[in-house]
Amino acid sequence: MTLRVTQSMMHSQLLRNVNNNLSRMERNQNVLSTGRKILKPSDDPVGITYALHYRSELSINEQYQKNIDTAKAYVDHTDTILGQVNDLIQRANELTTQGVNGTNPQSALDAIAQELGQIYEQAVTLGNDRLNGKYIFNGQKTDIQPYTTAGAPTESSDDQKIVYQFSAGVTVPINVTGNEVFGIGSGPNQEPDNLFSVLKDLQNDFLNGDQTAARTDMDRLTSRFNKFLDVRAEVGARANRIDLLDSRLQDLNQNLTALDSKVEDADIAETITNLQADQNVYQASLSVGAKIIQPSLLDYLR
């Protein structure tokens, strides 16, 4: 039995085909305007799962990158200040070596004592150094000044570390404490080679012309300098590790971005070609439709 094709059936089929062509054109236009081939989860249920995973990883890495940038600034600044402390200790050592050679008159010793006094005050200034308004040598108590000019030889800093996380399970302390740099100045663990105490004692030794005491204090200065070099080496090692973590994180971000691009990004050349083909088909369907629906009741009544 042959199925009778009515005019209404032809019109319905025509409209359905025209709408399908229009829908394909709309999708390709949306893909071109967004640059993404997954516009809704139903476009690629498996792909959207991977895409969300990659986006989450990139978002977490963005925070890790901020931590690394902050840590690098902190460690670099600390290293700069330690370099200045290093210069002060070396200058104090030069002056002490000059002062204990037994050939200097008291006036020369007074001049040495005066410069040692300036070195002491500058050391206190560096001990109270701040970055972004926070004291860098006072552990986690970054809002409290650790040293005073009058009491620095008997003062100590907070010993707590500021720890940053740079990836899952990877944490690195970014600060060194004043106790590590200048020595513990108070309490049961007070260190005899506290830098502030040694500088003050050396100043008094030369003011009093006591070169024997100055030689003893010179040994204390050497002891502090050796400990200070260990701290500088530790800061340098941390800076290198943070640089390595930064490089690794950038490589990881590049890989994740490439993977996400493969899943989500549209092939622009392919999409333009498809859109042009869809436009041609759409125009053809409209042309054919105009011919199909052209006969009307008036045409039959002529």
UniProtKB/TrEMBL annotation:
Superkingdom, natural source: Bacteria
Family, similarity comment: Belongs to the bacterial flagellin family.
Organism annotation: Ferviditalea candida
Main localization category: other
SUPFAM superfamilies assigned: Phase 1 flagellin
Name assigned to this protein: Flagellar hook-associated protein FlgL
Keyword terms of this UniProt record: Bacterial flagellum, Cell projection, Cilium, Coiled coil, Flagellum
Pfam family, one: Flagellin_C
Subcellular location: Bacterial flagellum
Sequence ranges assigned to domain Flagellin N-terminal in this UniProt record: 7-142
Coiled-coil ranges per UniProt: 242-269
Gene3D superfamilies with a match to the protein in the record: f41 fragment of flagellin, N-terminal domain
Domain annotation Flagellin C-terminal: ranges: 223-301
InterPro entries: Flagell_FlgL, Flagellin, Flagellin_C, Flagellin_N
PANTHER family linked to this entry: FLAGELLAR HOOK-ASSOCIATED PROTEIN 3, FLAGELLIN
